[in-house]
Structures are given as structure tokens and as C-alpha cells.
């Protein structure tokens, strides 16, 4: 039985299991707070001859031990925690915790982040982390619900690829029975293969690997990506419209179910997604940043982190939106497989959310001759990508798609300042454990 369901069992004998959250051992009574993933409840044990064996068990118990308690549930308005208490008839310590924990799980900032990550299973016991990953599970469900309700197929692409599959990018190399291989950085090629196969709309939610020796607050070497691809599009605007509808769907449902709890625990008001997400070209964005905020970015052909922050400030002020699409990035900053229009402008976009890029999307180049030419323009030997080029030899619909990092979405929804906190078990250049 879960603690959240106890209110249905007043004056009945019940059994609960959970962690010992707190023990108050007073002169005449013992109060024990029991916690499971759904809430907390007070157990009250008077000190008397009848309860002597129970008192002794609690005397020898420690915080964070696990217990199984059977007793009568009483409605007690004077009890601040839920207005109820359990009067136990039996207490069993199912697992005894050490008296001194390696980190303080009550006060987050009493331990360094890296120390907390060393003891991640304890760190995850905090209420905010419990809620964070409960919400993540629900967000993923809602994401899938949208996809299934809108004609997408879920696919599962290989995570071991030929080394040449994503030439020029940093990758984790491995020996594959004597052949050179790498861990996949993206399902991009295989998403496009399913477009050539006539699958029409696909999505995948799974891990990708980036061998970037980056120690920033928003990079990781193993990340969970949500990728989608759709066929028969007229322009990359169709891709943006589809992603916007998807985000509005899961953000609305999240707010309906968890908005109040998130506000209470994280002090965060979930984003209002009722307004259209603004679309601003890369060229316009650079002009706004320079003229309105008097900042010159570090990159001529891309946006740096500060520029992303400034464009989100602008979108919030001018459009009342926490989301903003930046479109038509220079070709030099984009992959060979993106489409260019007749003016040479890429049909690409980034989606920014509360100061950080969470998505790259585009219409893809699906015409064999042009795609081959663009591969060679990027200085890549087209023979190394012949398996990929073959996808486009026998008819392929116009298509496009996007990829979203799950942890970055979680960071911004909950206004967490570091990807390590928004990842269940983080992997970075210096972290392989736990």
C-alpha cells in the first residue's frame, strides 16, 4: 500500500513499507516519519510496557533504514503531516542504514555536486529529485502519446556504426571483430533511411554518444535523444509546426498534472505555451543582438551561449514566449545533409528555450546528385558515405526532422543550472561511476 492511498483506510489495520525519514525519540513517546515515493506519514509509539518491544526496535533504528509497519490508521487532525497517524502493532526493520550517511540528503547544498553524484542513489532520495524523475517519466509518456496519436512509428536504430558513418565528428571508437566502428552520435542517417522506405513519420527515444571533452554545464558524453522525421513536407516550416505542436501537447499535460507540485517544490511556474513560438532568422537575430543588446557574439556563423540567452530574453519580452525558433543558419555551420533554397539559404532552425538551444531541425536534402555534391563540398569523400547515398537512389520523399536532448529540456522546464542534476546517471569526460 502506498502512503498516498492511506486516507481511504481510516480505522483499519494496514501495512506500509518505506524509508525512515525522521525519528523523534521523546521521554514518553516515539514519533517516526515514514517516506515512500508517494508521500510521508507519521507513526506514533507510546512508551509503555505493552509497546516495549516496539520501543526497542525504534531505539536501534536509524534514519534512511527501510521498514515494514503494520498498525491501525487513525484520523488525527492535530498531526500536521496529513492529519493522520499509524498506531503500530508490528515493526520490522527490513534493511538497517548506517548511522552517518556520506551526504546530507535533506539539504542539497551541504555537499558538493560531485560528491552527491558519487552517492547518486542517496541524492535521488530527495523530494525534488523524486519529483523531477517522476515528471520526466510522464513527459516521455506524453511525448509518445502525441507521436502515436499523430501517425508516427517508433523505431530503434543501431547504436554501433561504421566509423565513416558520421565523418568529421568526434566519436567513441571501438573494435568490432577486427573492424573499425564507433558508438552512434545520432540516428540521423537511419531516420532518413526509413523515409526512403516509405515509413512517412518516425520517432526514436534512445541514447547517443558524443566524445566531446567538454566540461560545460550543458554537455554530456551519453545523452538521451528524442528524434523525429516526417515525409512529404513542403518546407522546413512544416517541421517547425510539427515540433511546436508536439511541445505544446506535452507541456500542457505536464502543467495540468504536475504544475502545482512543481511550483511548490521547485518554485518554478511552468511555461505558458498558448502563444505561437516566434520565428526569427539567423541574420535578424544577429542584428537584434548587436543593436538592442550591444553584444557581438564569439561566432560569426552560429550563436554563442550568450546570444542564445539574449534571444530568449527578446522573445519573452516581445512575444511572451519562452521558446523561439532561429532559422536559416549559414551553411558553413550546418551538416551536408541539410537542404538549401534557391538563394543558398539553409532550410534549418534551432529551437531555443529559456536561454539554451534544445533542438536542431531542418528540411533534408533528398536529391541524390545535390546531396553527393554537398558531401564533397564539406570535404568528405563521398565513397565513405555511399551506403547513406544509396538511400536516395530509388526515390525518396521530401522530408525533414529534428532532434531534442531530453536532459536539456528537463534543465529548462525545471530551471536547473547543470545537466548533471537533470540526468539520472551522468556520464562526462571525467565520470564513469557510479
Protein model, in words:
The protein is of the alpha+beta class and 434 residues long. The chain folds into two domains: 3-95, Beta Barrel (OB fold (Dihydrolipoamide Acetyltransferase, E2P)), CATH 2.40.50; 123-413, Bira Bifunctional Protein, Domain 2 (BirA Bifunctional Protein, domain 2). 30% of the residues lie in helices and 26% in strands. The protein has eleven helices and 16 strands. It has helices spanning 52-59, 113-118, 120-123, 127-149, 188-196, 236-266, 282-293, 305-319, 368-377, 386-389, 406-413; strands at 13-25, 29-36, 39-46, 66-75, 84-95, 153-154, 160-162, 173-176, 179-183, 201-209, 222-231, 279-281, 323-327, 348-353, 356-363, 399-405. The strands form three sheets. It has an eight-stranded mixed β-sheet, sandwiched between helices. Strands 1-2-3-5-4 form a five-stranded mixed beta barrel. A three-stranded antiparallel β-sheet has the order 7-9-8, with no helix packed on it. A hairpin with a 2-residue loop joins strand 14 (348-353) and strand 15 (356-363). The model is unreliable at 164-168 (pLDDT under 50).
The CATH superfamily name of the largest domain is Bira Bifunctional Protein, Domain 2
Low-confidence stretches: 164-168
As laid out across the biggest beta sheet, the strand order is 6-10-11-16-15-14-13-12
Number of helices: 11
- CATH uppermost class of the largest domain: Alpha Beta
Order of helices and strands, N to C?
Answer: EEEHEEHHHEEEEHEEHEHHEEEHHEH
CATH architecture of the largest domain: 2-Layer Sandwich
CATH topology of the largest domain: BirA Bifunctional Protein, domain 2
Helix content: 25-40%
Shape: elongated
Structural class: alpha+beta
Number of strands: 16
- Residue share in β-strands: 25-35%
Head-to-tail CA distance between termini: 31 Å
What's the gyration radius in Å? 27 Å
Major sheet summary line: 8 strands, mixed
**What's the rounded overall pLDDT mean?**
96
Number of domains: 2
